[in-house]
Amino acid sequence: MAGVANPNHIELVVRAAVFHRLVQPVYDNDELAWYGLEPRGLLGDLGPSQLAALIQVCQRHPEFHITSYCKNLRTMNRLIHNAAFFYMARGDKNPYLVFNPWVDPMGPLLDEDVFGKLGCEPHEIYRRLKY
């Protein structure tokens, strides 16, 4: 965990595991579809075209908030309008929480592990190991 403080902004940079445990992004595409959202990937990422619908969902359901994945590969726990894509989250709404993979040495390994598991998922469903 590290803190960055400038006159214009404050950030609390945390590791990936801590960020995901605190923020609790919604990765379940079925749950997102139930709220009327159309994720564009396996991890529940919502493109800029879904931003208006995501804002409406978060206004109707105050337990949710928006996290933004920015073009500089940082995930911010607040709405950044020019972000690459967005997530719906149900955890801590602290707008200063940030995950920066350039700071976390385990970040690329965690991403590789997540994508490895996602690659196995269709195979396990096909082999009827998971329903």
Summarize the structure.
This protein is an alpha+beta fold and 131 residues long.
Spell the H/E element sequence: EEHHHEEEEH
Query: What's the pLDDT, averaged over the residues?
Result: 80
Q: Identify low-pLDDT runs.
A: none
Q: Report strand order across the widest sheet.
A: 1-2-6-4-3-5
Strand content: 15-25%
Description:
This protein is α+β, with helices and mostly antiparallel strands. It has one domain. It is built from 4 helices and 6 strands. A 6-stranded mixed sheet has the order 1-2-6-4-3-5. A hairpin with a 5-residue loop joins β3 (65-69) and β4 (75-76). The model has no long low-confidence stretch (mean pLDDT 80).
Key structural traits:
six-stranded mixed sheet, 34% helix, alpha+beta, 131 residues, globular, 6 strands
Topology (elements, then pairings):
Layout: E1 2-5, E2 10-14, H1 16-23, H2 29-34, H3 51-60, E3 65-69, E4 75-76, E5 85-89, E6 97-99, H4 107-126
Parallel strand pairs: 2-6
Antiparallel strand pairs: 1-2, 3-4, 3-5, 4-6
